[in-house]
Specification:
The chain is built from four helices and five strands, in the order E-H-H-E-E-E-H-E-H. The protein has a five-stranded mixed β-sheet, sandwiched between helices. The chain starts with a strand and ends in an 18-residue tail after the last helix. The chain is α+β, with helices and mostly antiparallel strands and 143 residues long.
């Protein structure tokens, strides 16, 4: 069962987020959500408990490999290790497809780090095709 994150379950969601993104604490995610920056968050329940989540957005700027906008974007997807290979992530992807159409998006996009082979394999398995590889650069500029 997939349901939107709400005040009642956002603590569980934030805990799962901090596993996927360990540089941030659950409180960081709750703060972002309270400021309205994470409006499309969904939890997947199995055995009566949240076992995974998906974070979605609608991007209206350029999205690599997409031909038209707006584009539904998977900002993050996570399933507890014990519940992997049980169809939870695939269910979350199917939910994202329906969500995309409901938000007038005809493409669904995502990304992963170059070295994250598990995520890369997952994306391919659920039907994504690779459209590009990049190396990002940044530079500090002194005043």
């Amino acid at each position: 069962m997939i349901i939107p994150v709400s005040k009642e379950n956002e603590g569980d969601w934030a805990d799962l987020c901090s596993v996927l993104w360990p540089d941030n604490s659950p409180e960081d995610f709750l703060d972002e959500r309270a400021r309205g920056k994470l409006p499309y968050e969904y939890l997947c329940y199995m055995d009566g408990k949240p076992r995974g989540f998906i974070s979605l957005s609608v991007r209206t700027d350029y999205v690599e490999g997409c031909s038209e906008g707006p584009v539904a974007y998977i900002e993050g997807i996570y399933v507890e290790k014990k519940y992997r290979r049980r169809g939870v992530a695939r269910e979350l992807i199917e939910y994202a497809k329906i969500w995309a159409l409901a938000h007038d998006c005809h493409e669904l996009a995502s990304d992963c780090e170059l070295e994250n082979k598990v995520s890369e394999a997952f994306h391919r398995k659920v039907g994504f095709k690779e459209v590009n590889r990049i190396i990002a650069f940044s530079m500090k500029v002194k005043p």
